[in-house]
Amino acid sequence: MATFGMGKVMKFGVLGGAVSAAALGMAAAAGAAAGPGIPKLLTDPKTIADNYLPDFSYAGYGYGVKPIPRVDAMIDVADYGAIPDDGLDDSVALKAALAAAHEAEGPVRVQMHSGRYQLTEILWIEKSGIVLAGMGSGAGGTQLYMPRPLNQIDGGGAFDEIKEYLVRYDKRERQKGQNLDVLFSPYSWTGGFIWTRFPGGRHATYLEELDRPIENLGNIARGKRGTMELTLGGTGNVSVGDVVQINWHNRAGENGPLIQAIYGDFDGTIGSRHWEFPERPLVRQATKITAVKGNRITIADPLLHDISSAVPANFARWDHISEVGLQDFSLIFPDNPYFGHHNEAGYNGVYFTGVYNGWISNVHIKDADSAVLTDDLANVTIRNILTYGDHKAHYAVHVGNVHNVLVDNMTVRNPTQHTFSFNTQSTKSVYKDSEGWHEPTLDQHAGANHQNLYDNITVHVRPDGTAEDGSPQVYLFRAGGAGYWKPGHGGFNTIWNLKVLAEGDVAPGQELVVLEDSGGPMARVVGLHGNRPLRLDYRPDPYTEMLGMKVTSVPSLYEWQRARR
Questions:
Q1: Can you name one GO molecular function term for this protein (predicted)?
Q2: β-pairing, 377-388 with 402-412?
């Protein structure tokens, strides 16, 4: 396997709508080797063998192949006193309607009407089969209006652990030039006015003394990355239909083989968090057991990593809820000041945690600190989302500590710190057919996130810096994450058909540098293109192909892979 160094510079582009001569040459070479516009990464046996590409098509509800269900049984919030547009607070009534849903048998839809409801408490969803629905997210639809942030609301103890963690480890936002030195806000990446969780669930872990014993359901002797058949080592306690987690622990320290599996022969710095907590899984894959034949187990989606005596793994119990949906409404926050990064007041829309097979669909969010935050999810579809307003958000839709999450058709029109974020320990997740308008970033957030896909994303940019040769530069992959979680990502994060549209400060024919200097090894970049000549500066070196042109034969890698299952 190659050693990954400081990165190479790749040039390509368009001029006035015509592909440059260099790009035409590259395209011709790619076409000759791979057929009419089909990338070699998908067609050429040697290229495929030398450059592993995960199958991303299992992301989303029902492993990407089942439609989001319609739930007909209904609880009407009006029956519990929630009346829109009456100027009164609706929190008690909305909570009462949800309480009734928690007592109902079978799936149930909690239905809101057209108009604006006022919400000043957290709406908890802690049972499978509950759908919170409105009449639509646009004109004539349903609005939830939150006049106060989470820092003025009783969270019932839900924020106690993260608050203690921030104090104990002195996690602070320090900006000397702005005279700012404060503890991080507990709402920067946690909490929402709509909050799903398994009852009593601890879906984000901060303090080690609160860690709960992991219930081992069987040690796995063998498994091959990308396949779905495993061999148990001895007896196991799993049955067909069980939804469990496969846990990989790094108990071998700084140079453990699991780190090699994630990062390959990366010669940069690996942060200490990768080995500091050996009893916490470094990689988790939630999956469903589809067949059991003796000690041979079949799972519902391809393995993230090989399993062997050198890289051991086990099945573990996963507490979760399922068939939970949020759909057809908007979340509206008041005009509110921006206090800075990690200093948010808590105008957070949704905190989606502890869900397997769920969805958020057709939801608009205005002036949020974070529109949607996620944690401890698997096979969730987040679709048809619009975030907008003048308030700068920390996240638009955050994808962190999850597996197989699909974010599809999202439009981000508000300023954000992290626009499209693959965050800590996210795997096999996808942003697809989405667009960012206001200084967007593709945030590959340090924290062992790996095997994720940006698929057919459009970004509208202006340069925010200057390359060494004086060319305008956009730091498109400006990322976050603590040093103890570096590098920015693990192997096989893939960027497919990324369109970069310069909105200003770049003349026709002038080259724009697209920078990623905080990434990680073994990335794949295919089909990067835009309305100006582009130079990709990605470190360390990615696999690249068909730069300077859109992969018209395969506009979506996710859809291409799904069609071939």
A1: lyase activity
A2: parallel
> What pLDDT is attached to residue 314?
98
Do 375 and 223 meet the contact criterion of CB atoms below 8 Å apart? no
CA distance 74 to 483: 48
pTM: 0.94
Partnered with residue 220 across adjacent β-strands are: 232, 313
Per-domain residue ranges of the chain? 210-317
Residue 258 amino acid letter: L
Pairing of strands 296-299, 283-293: antiparallel
Burial degree of 76 (CB within 10 A; 0-12, 13-18, 19+): middle
* Residue range 510-535: mean pLDDT, rounded: 97
Residue found under tokens 């709402």: 187
Q: 138: number of CA atoms within 13 Å, CB side?
A: 4
pLDDT at site 37: 80
Among 324, 303, 304, residue whose Cα is nearest residue 382: 324
**DSSP E strands, 8-62:** 8-12, 14-15, 18-19
**In Å, how far are 83, 143, 383 from 140, measured between CA atoms?**
15, 9, 20
Per-residue b or e along 8-46, where b marks 16 or more CB atoms closer than 10 Å to that residue's CB:
eebbbbbbeeebbeebeebbeebbeebeebbbbbbebee
* Residue 324 CB contacts under 8 Å (≥ 6 apart), including other chains: 125, 128, 129, 130, 131, 196, 355, 358, 359
